[in-house]
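Data card: per-record layout.
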Amino acid sequence: MSTATTSAPTPVGTAPERPGVRLLRWWPAAVLALLVSAPWSALPVPGLLDGPLGSPGSLQLLATCLLFGALATGYDLLLGRTGLLSFGHALYFATGSYATNTFLLEAGLPFALAAVLGLCSGIVLALVLGSVSLRVTGIGFSMVTLAFAQAGSILVSRDPGGLTGGEEGRAAPAELLPSWLVGIDNTANLYWIALAYLVLTLGVVRWAVRSPTGRVWEGIKENERRVEVLGLRPYGFKLTAFVLAGALAAVGGLVHLLLTGGSTPQTTTSDFTLSLLVMVVLGGSGTRWGPMVGGVLYTWADHRLGDLAGSGAVADLPAVLRVPLSQPLFLLGVLFVAVVHLLPGGLARLPSRLRRPREENR
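The structure for this 362-residue chain is written out next.
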């Protein structure tokens, strides 16, 4: 006697999943494989990159884009997931960079130990400042974080004890860094570190959002009073999000230290945090991939539009066009306004907007 194998019935009202849709679920793995193999590629990408994909200059730009894509994803834990508008997130990024550099230069510690202490410094600072900032809500919280950020920026520019280098910043000691992280020949290693930071951030954020704590964050964003009525204390959950986002930013500061070869005071300003805010809004706040896409696109545009603004093509234009187009910030602003106006919800909403007309025509 033979037995027939039958497939499980499809639930009523649910269309069977097409093979093409099933394959699309693997696109993150395909993109990751392409990114991992980029340093071995000599593929020219005209218009997007100056040289071949695997050249040191291209890898440096790609690594910077990946770094800020990860940083924007971590910042979205506050803005998009918990509804906290912080203007001081740059402070923890800068702490990871400056603290690690100080432990290297002043204490002469090995890089691994200095990096751990730099990360711990960022976490402790986020815990202390977050516990104070979160005593108030709404615009009050935003103003307190802005005040802390301004205080940190002023402290760095004043160069107390010669520890920060003031407005010039402070270069990292090449002799105390691992040899495989120093020099143009090792740009690929720095690129892979930036990629690993992006993967780590995406994984941590994904895990945190899907956890019970992440569901409480969603409730706080929607209606904090309702969370209190359910018997939960929003303060502790918000502090957890604040510290976790600060820890991820501190790791980003370590990566930035390696990529740039030093600590720069520009990373301490509130303008730096405003750039993160633009990245998140550009990509799509509260979405899985939006902040990362916004961070990558904004960083690439920030670098490439500067080259466009100084190109001969723009210099030959009439003055009425040449003057605004020669300003990279003007071009970035136009791009941001266009995306916000044409794509409410950010670039992450674009696939669903493209699918909607096709579904309506069926």
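Known properties of this structure: The mean pLDDT is 86. The longest helix spans residues 234-260.

See the next section for split statistics.
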